[in-house]
Hints:
heterodimer, A: 521 residues, alpha+beta, Multidrug efflux transporter AcrB transmembrane fold, Alpha-Beta Plaits, Gyrase A, domain 2, 3 domains, 15 helices, 20% strand, B: 322 residues, 2 domains, four-stranded antiparallel sheet, two-stranded parallel sheet, 6 strands, elongated, cell membrane (chain B), protein transport (chain B), translocation (chain B), membrane (chain B), SecD/SecF_CS (chain B)
Amino acid sequence: MKIFNYRLVIFILSIIFGIVFSIPSLLQTDTGKKISLGLDLQGGLHMLLGVNTHEAVTSKIKTVATSIKYFSDDEELLIDGLSIENDSVVFTVLDADEMPKMDEMLKQIKGLDISKEDLKYTLKLTAEDIAKTKDLSVAQAVETIRNRLDQFGLSEPTVVRQGQTDIVVELPGIKTQEDEKAARELISKPANLELMAVDEERADQVYTMTSSQAAAYGDVILEDTNNDKVKYLVKEIPILNGSQVVDAQVGFDQSNQPIINFTLNSTGARIFGEFTGKNVGKRLAVVLDGKVYSAPNIRERIGGGSGQISGGFTMIEAGNVAIALRSGALPATVTLLEKRSVGPSLGADSIQASMIALISGFSLVFIFMVIYYRRAGVIANIALITNVFIIIAVMAMFGATLTLPGMAGIVLTVGMAVDANVIITERIRELIREGSSIPKAIEDGYSNAMRAILDANITTLLVAVLLYAYGTGPIKGFAITISIGILASMLTAILGTHGIYEALMSRISRDKDSKKWFGVK
Amino acid sequence: MEIFKTNVIYDFMGKRLPFLGLSSILFIASIVLLLTKGLNFGIDFAGGTIVQVKYEQAAPIDKIRETLKTTKYGNSVITKFGSDEEVIIRITGSSSDLTNDIGDEMHKILVPTGNFEIRRIDMVGAKVGGELREKGLMALSLSLLVMLIYLSVRFEWRFALASVFALVHDITIAMGAISLFSVEVNLDILAAILTLLGYSLNDTIIVFDRIREGIQSSKGTDLKGIINESVSKTLSRTTLTSLTTLFVVATLYFFGGEIISGFSFTLLVGIIVGTYSSIFIAASFLVQLKFSVDDFKTKEAEKVKRQKEKEKLRAMYEQGTV
């Protein structure tokens, strides 16, 4: 009599697989792949951020205007009324003979939709370019936020794009409200550094001017960061911006206040050197996110391309600004669309509660099966335990995340996986009652029950797949555990138990006591 | 051990009218509840903010209410959550400002109410709430559609229609219970309802499979008799599998913690209703739909005949005689 049959061998292999791959997760060993706990179980912060992509379009239009201004200044080409209206740049060329020159220059800028009316130009971004700009701004925001969080020193931050304009940020390492706030501030900081020339000719009029009057001179009025009563009149088009910063570090000034030392790239350094050389004696405003941090006098040409931002930072602020500068500016502001934050103690409570539910649910099913079906119940229980091990092992292998609904899914799977064994054993009992021999009853029982079991599993799997496709975070976890559980039950509850019966067949046939095995005479 | 006598055939169909009556009452009551009281949508679908706070001592609910009255969160709803120390504060709005959100403000506002820890803040903006609603509806209708397709492939149309009726019956009553007990409807409740969809259908399919088997093997044409026999034969299977699932769902409900209590409550009600309907209701629909055993047998015979002819043709074709 052979004890090993192919079903039993597969079942034993799956038991070994289940145990080996679930050990790292169950015993929390240092090596090996483990299941990661969802934010609802380990605590942490989940946020959905929306990128205001339109801002990226606006700023691109601004850049177009800037380059036209530089070009016309450089080439001494006379233009009038350069302004931005409804996302388009409008200006008039004074001399018709200079239009070819202007056209030639505009050809260099890609993605422009140019319309001309006599001498008046209207420049728009093409629809294609707007879409591209928006798309790029989200990708860039993801990159920037990821860089910032990496440097912030949080463990395993996740930053991924979702859909057209949204970004999902998950921070499992957040433990306190203060950490959470700091992380949020770091993410949302635009970190837009601009070095701007103070308009010294009209500097004394700054407190009497309106912003539209300032705009007429190509100026803007900015407030001081520490005192909003102090105002500066600066040239609207910056000399340099943060994109030319290659490094930023926290340092200290003579009075031991934290400052930020930044280094420019070679282009930035050249422009900075030229500008400071030409403008000795004038002031240079260091502007961060639209606030003036300082406006020192230029004493001499500054070569080497380094500068500093000072202006009453706290140590933490300085650190954040430095990180933000190093990782680049956000191309557009972000808003909070959804936030789910779970404290670590609540996560621990949830784990405990669901473990209690799992163990007591398990025990109830176990005891019931043994009382009702005797040895057939024991065999079903072996399959059930293996099933749970396999769920854990497969999840660990794929690095899946266990969430609270996922835990509920495992508990539910225990109830449903045993379903297959109930169907099979009921069929076997029926056949025994009808007078079949036990070996025949077992064989026929399995084949008769197959269809019903497949129905049960297919309907549940279909729903699980849809739940995975349309659910979010934790619900996806439910869909995952339930799908794995159902698939594993095919291996354990059907194949595995069948293998055990086959191996025991000679004993069962010799025994004749069907009550002992199936709880029925 | 056996719960049901295996040689007894219960007369389910003879007593189908009282059960259909009971189901109609439950069904109509559920519809009325859903139309008048409606569902208590949680923040996942309605948008808003909830803050779960745990105090070191019993939570001073009145004091919290007083404190909040003086702020712009005066209309928020405060309820005990699980234990005496914990409360949930429900706020209708949400904040889109990343640097200073409702959580930060709550932290400051609640300081005078005692020593506490904010354990959970869930904030769903209006836009996301709308999206989740859309996705939820999509998941629900797609599931129904998939089930319908599955059924129509699996069964004769009256069988399929009867199981759809049973399905609608189960889900409606489960939702009626959700409305009656003001269970907060969030994503997890949707997941529970979708799970029930699969679960309740599969219970019905097993009974119907048996009925079809009974029709094919019986010589008589008495549908009610065949149904009674089939339902009686699957009775212990139907009750037992429901029982094991019920065990685990009940432990989830009682021990699983406050956060998933709505989820397990929905499953608990749904499994009970689903089991009841597959025993007492689903097959009654078949009788009400005037399913005729005779017609079915003729059609089945025709099908078998066609199949045989096809095989014959194929055999001839393969032998090269055509």
